[in-house]
Amino acid sequence: MLHELGNILILLAAAVIAVPIAKKLRLGAVLGYLVAGLVIGPFALGLIRTPEEVLELSELGVVMLLFVIGLELSPQRLWLLRRSVFGVGALQVGSALLPLALIGWWLGLGMVAAAVAAFGLALSSTAFVLQILAERNELTAEHGRSAFGVLLFQDLIAVPVLALLPLAGSSADSGLDWAKVGQVLGAIAIVMFAGRFLSRPLFRLVARARSTEVFTAASLLVVLGTAALMHAVGLSMALGAFLAGVLLANSEYRHELEAHVEPFKGLLLGLFFLAVGMNIDLRLLSERPLAVLALMLGFLLLKFAVLGLLAWRLKLPRNGALMFIALLAPGGEFAFVVYQQAQANGVLPVAIADLLTLAVALSMAATPLLVLLVEAWIARRQAEATPRPDDVIDDERPQVVIVGFGRVGQIIGRILKAKEICFVAIDPDTNQVDLSRRFGNKIYYGDPSRAELLRAAGAEQARMFILA
Fold first, then answer.
1. How far apart are CA 45 and CA 40, in angstroms?
2. Which residue, 395, 465, 397, is CA-closest to 426?
3. Mean per-residue pLDDT for 343-356?
């Protein structure tokens, strides 16, 4: 018990010290976490001896991040992103995977091993990219939406790849495991049914208890329960949480859910970045520096070229295209899972898997530095001339936020609706929320005294805030 408490104190102290320093130096929070993790990890000071356990726990941060992103994407809006997901995403993965696999095969790997190694290198970091885009308020920019589509496709395609790895190994059985397929489809059906028919009654019951703690517990139950169910059938926990978020995106409890999950998401994501820093194996880097750096620079340059062609094909503005390339070129956390499973199933030799893992981890650590370089280049260009700014997509943020939707709030709402002014209402009474929703009003349940809820509802962007 004391050992675990000591590790927790070390992790908290590392975050508290490193992140403010990194932000003061304008390096970004992500780079601060990475450097702190590297310093306290087993390959530097050795304050934390088991970084793999920390990484396993911290993956819940990615789970909660995807849940919050899902809350922002209704099924209708997700359908609008189908071109970015299945068009741009498939093109990025395929264009990077094919040449990387051919290079691996030319270097002496078998075709299956080369394909698996190339697939891991073709992926990008969902946690890093979305966090950086959110910090820069660029999730709804054109390059932000394109990057999100690519990341979502990568998460989707990683599921069947992980499922096929045991079949690719030397000990795999022939044929398709139809029982496993049935379990996967059954788990997805359960999540969709629960999100459609059970979530609203659950949160209505919890909301009537008027207990913030109980609502927080219910929010975590939904996120972690969905993630656990998906993990039990071999799917990505993050993908399951994203699906749950999408199904709840049209719920009147959406903003309250986001406000309750947000603090846990931020803390666990920070823990994830610390864990990535701790897993950078400095010993292997010192033993084979040329091999590691050549591998990292090689796949980065190839992905730069692929992503540059994609950005040109998408006609992204120059600044947005550079940010798109810098964010998606480095490797991603899913590569760790792919290489670990490939090693366990005899698809990749241990030495090759370790080398690939280190190259991916170093490239992830370089992500904030690449972003800083792009920002510096953009700033220099802006000092010389005033370029066209990035397109900003209308995120349907309300012009007016109404707190309280009783008699006065409803009168104001009717006036705004008659003037065709977009508004969002927040009310702590579940009965009032249910009644008003039947008349087509955009109203959400929640405690309006909480700053996180108001922020999630778009109060910072609204032109008017009415307390009714």
1. 5
2. 465
3. 82
Q: Which of 3-17, 349-363, 367-381, 384-398 has the lowest mean pLDDT?
A: 384-398
Under DSSP, the state recorded for 88 is: I
| DSSP H or E segment with residue 300 | helix 289-314
**Best CA proximity match to 446, nearest among 407, 410, 403:** 403
What is the average pLDDT across 177-194?
76
Q: State the Cα torsion 30-31-36-39 to the nearest 10°.
A: 140
Distance CA 419, CA 125 (A): 44
- Residues 6 or more apart from 248 whose CB is under 8 A from it? 70, 71, 195, 199, 222, 254, 257
Q: Is the pLDDT of residue 177 over 50?
A: yes
Tokens of 182: 């049935």
229-243, 307-321, 404-418, 453-467: least confidently modelled range: 229-243
Average pLDDT along the chain:
81
Domains of the chain: 50-384 (1.20.1530.20), 400-467 (3.40.50.720)
Taking the C-alpha atoms of residue 215 and residue 454, their distance in angstroms, rounded to an integer, is 17
Q: Nearest-CA neighbor of 159 among 189, 118, 123, 106?
A: 123
What's the whole-number mean pLDDT along residues 265-289?
82
Which residues sit opposite 94 in a β-bridge? none
* Pair of tokens at residue 181: 């397929």
Is the pLDDT at 388 greater than 50? The verdict is: no
- Reported as a pLDDT band with limits 50, 70 and 90, residue 78 is low
Is pLDDT at 390 greater than 50 in this prediction? no
Q: Which two tokens stand for residue 298?
A: 């090689």
What average pLDDT score do residues 343-353 get?
81
Indicate the residue type of 229. L
- pTM comes to 0.64
Beta bridge partners of 392: 141
Cα 310 to Cα 294: distance, rounded to the nearest angstrom: 24
Contact 399, 422 (CB under 8 A): yes
| DSSP H helical ranges for 28-138 | 29-40, 51-71, 75-80, 82, 89-106, 111-122, 126-135
Contact indicator for 401, 378 with CB cutoff of 8 Å: no
Counts of helices then strands in the chain (DSSP H, E): 22, 4
Q: Are strands 423-427 and 443-445 parallel, antiparallel or unpaired?
A: parallel
**398, 454 contact by CB (below 8 A):** no
